Glycerate dehydrogenase
Amino acid sequence: MKIVILDGYTENPGDLSWEDLAALGELEVYDRTPAGEIEERMSGAEAVFTNKTPISRHAIENCPSLKYIGVLATGFDVVDIRAAAEAGITVTNVPSYGTDAVAQYTIALLLELCHHVGAHSDSVKAGEWTKSADWCFWNYPLTELSGKTMGIIGFGRIGQKTARIAEALGMEIKVFDAVCRKELETEHCRYADLEELLAVSDVICLHCPLNSGTKGIINRDTIAKMKDGVLIINDSRGPLIVEKDLKEALESGKVAGAAVDVVSEEPVREDNPLMTAPNMIITPHIAWASRESRKRLMDIAVDNLKSFLQGRPQNVVSVLRQETV
């Protein structure tokens, strides 16, 4: 079978091997695929893998040989799932490869907001400590997390892992999710409705999928319901936040700081409102990208295709899953 990878570079810039996937068929790997070349490169393929290259209804309808689409990520909004289902094409994702990496990165962003480690290191290297009249200095408020409340919107694997780390730091956890699984609650981690979570949280972390119910969930109205001085972290999907509203809240001080690893359009545009917002950290969508995480992703992607070829597909996604918060 012909297997095509549309955008393999971010998954494997050269430090991993595609040999296990190549063993399953005739493999073509493209580092990146421009929009105008997607259908041409998919032509004749029975299996196509994508990370962020969109596979539209038009592309699906114009690739009659296609039987399988493997998304090299957890989020699968890059594929027109309904069109794939109508064409009888199986679509899979990789649901749990990055749990540890993304949860760890969430806490890294939070600690940077609380301690400004990078900024203070830069100040020292610029000579500020050498010239200081005192034995120490700090240019930003330093915040202790113990006893504070973290609100987590979306309580899947990553949300759960983040909660466990935050609990270890002494934080109380409030969780909002469409599905309430009481067995996941602990003494310091409880479900709440969105209104309560917004009102009581000192830190709000987004770990939910992007769909019609979550797009723009952080906006002027929801920010107004938050505590003054709240911190906001998003390493899930950029469009969960109305970026101009977040910038306004940062400028007013309503939001004390924010850190995002994702934005509404990637790569980030120069005119993105967050690029000029104060107390704002932006990183280039790397929470998932530890080598360990990428190797795990590749292994699961290979297993997904093997299972499909054996007639017992795993990690299959559907329209229903896409529309569930």
Notes: The CA atoms of residues 261 and 285 lie 5 Å apart. The chain has two domains: 2-97+291-320, 99-282. The chain has twelve helices and twelve strands. The mean pLDDT is 97.
